[in-house]
Structure formats: C-alpha cells, structure tokens
Amino acid sequence: MSLTVYAPASMGNVGVGFDLLGAALAPIEGSLLGDRVMIAEANAGLTLNTTGAWAHKLPANPRENIVWQCAEFFLQRLGKEELGIALTLEKNLPVGSGLGSSASSVVAALYALNEYFDKPFDEQALLALMGEFEGKISGSVHYDNVAPCYLGGMQLMLDLPGRICESIPSFEHWYWVVAYPGISLSTAKMRALMPDSYDKSVVIDFGRHLSAFVHASYRQDEALALAVLKDVLAEPYRAPAIPGYLEARDALAELGMLTSGISGSGPTLFSVTSCLETAEAAKAWLEAHYLTEGGFAHVCRLDMQGTRVVASEG
C-alpha cells in the first residue's frame, strides 16, 4: 500500500485573531499550494527522502526533520518500530514564510501515517498531536495554522477539552491575494518583537474586533467584517520588520483592495477583495514591487477541503 497526502498552506491570525483564527488557502488557478507526503511500505526500518522547491532549506540529517520525528513517534506508539516505512516529503512551502510551512509538513505527515495505519487517532486526538509537533518548530503550541490546514476553511481556536477548534462561516465571494516576498522570518523572532504586556484599551479592542468579526461572519455582514478585520496586537510591531510591507499595504488600498494584513508572523501578506479584476491587479503590483528572488503571489479562495489523500495504491 502507498498513498500521497496534500496539506494546504494557511494564514495564521487572519489579522484580527492573533493565535485564535486561521484559514486554509487554495489558489484559484488550481495549483496545490502546500506540502505533500508520500508513504509506502519498505523492506525494513524508517527512511525519509525530501524533494520539492524548498527541500534545500531542510535539515541535512533526516532524523532532524519533523516528518521523521512524526513517523518515529507513530511507530513507537503503535509498537511497530520493526516495520519498514518509506516516507517522502515534497517541500513546496518556503520555511519562515508566514504560510504555515511547518504546519503543512506536520499535518501531511501525521494525516498520512494515520490513514496508512487505519486511523488509530480520532480527529481531535490527531489535531492535538499536530499542534504538539508543530510547536516543536515554532516554539509554542498554537493551532491557528494546523487546524485550518487539517480541517480546511476558517477555524476559530477554542482549546477546550475535546474541542480544540470550530469552523466559522467564510465570505465565499472574497478573493484572498497572498504574496510571499522571497525572504524568511523566524516565527520565534517575530513573536519576540511583540511586547510582554498591553494597555487595557488595546486588549479591549482586540476582543471587540475578533468577536465582531466572528459575529459578522455568521451574519454574512461584509461591511462589518471588513471594518474590524485589523490587527492591533502584532502588526504595529511586526510591520516595520517586513521590508516593503507598509508601502505595499498603502498601494493595495489605492488599487481598491478592501483590507490587508500580515499572514501569520510574515513576511507573506494577505489582501482581500470581492472583485477578481482588482485581485489580479493587486497580484501584478505585488509581483512587480513586493517580490524578490524566490517570491510568489497567488489569488486564492479559502480551501474548504483541508488535508486529503490525493493518490493511493494497494
């Protein structure tokens, strides 16, 4: 038996919901923006090969790769360390991009392993495991990338026993333009830019904006959602550390984009519109003015499927 699993890119925070909101991305042209993991039977032991455009950014030692560590844990947990398993990670997301790169690898690996071994973990247990392993890379356990990557759509983090997250309605006519400029920024370092404490008024604004956005999502009140889709916790401190971000945000507003923000901890930005023509114009501007070597931009909808098997034999 062999199978291939795809795990989509994701936006953590979605601007308004620091660590509490995330969304999966699907380019409208049909490309798969995310990592893939292939798993197959082997003669003996565990092997890991890496391919893809960003494989050269991964550790040279396979044992240091999070996909290897996911597989090692799985085999030990099932008491099947003697089994031969061959894994291949197709690394299609840049490391430190703000697109949930580590989450995509972790989610694809654990989903593939769970499918291969007839689903020993249920959905919530597997999601908790995904958060734990992703946290080993980002420095802390948070689900705003792994949850939408795994489950698709827009996910609100609850972090309650047995209810880690819940999906919330999205605005299906929105286009999400995302642009990765071609540089990498450490999630841990970008988190360190934020203050240890906030003024009470800022905390109140954060709660007001997030609750209003969730309310607007259920009411499908686009004007309200756009009015409160702003980041008062992280963007004021992170924006100056992302080359060209502030200039790009202003230019996108002039083009008619409805709102813009930082995807995850950056440097990828996102921008929202309900007009495809405006989205394509924004993409073109970003390609000309925001991207450096290795960068890319996509016009996306939200990926409602989440992680899935894209090939299977045996």
Automatic annotation (TrEMBL):
ATP binds at P94, V95, G96, S97, G98, L99, G100, S101, S102, A103, S104. Keywords: Amino-acid biosynthesis, ATP-binding, Cytoplasm, Kinase, Nucleotide-binding, Threonine biosynthesis, Transferase. GO terms for molecular function: ATP binding; homoserine kinase activity. Residues 65-153 form the GHMP kinase N-terminal domain. GO terms for cellular component: cytoplasm. It comes from the Bacteria. Pathway: Amino-acid biosynthesis; L-threonine biosynthesis; L-threonine from L-aspartate: step 4/5. Its main location: cytoplasm. It is found in: Cytoplasm. It catalyses: L-homoserine + ATP = O-phospho-L-homoserine + ADP + H(+). Catalyzes the ATP-dependent phosphorylation of L-homoserine to L-homoserine phosphate. Belongs to the GHMP kinase family. Homoserine kinase subfamily. This is Homoserine kinase. The gene is thrB.
